[in-house]
Design goal:
With 65 residues, this protein is mostly helical. It has helices at 3-10, 15-19, 23-47.
Length: 65
Amino acid sequence: MSDILNHIEENHKETQRLIGLEYEHLQQLLQNAERLHHEKQALLESKKVRIIAGGGGRKGSIPVL
């Protein structure tokens, strides 16, 4: 975490003065930003073109009985 976020975590009452948002609103904003980031990462991962198909590679050997 950055120094600013550490300071805000330690001093909840100064949040309004520092960034103009109440602490609860800041927490909600951060949660929404993280959720949106994860959704965008998942979308990018789903659109990724794979050169090598999944499940490829060396197959395991069959044990001899």
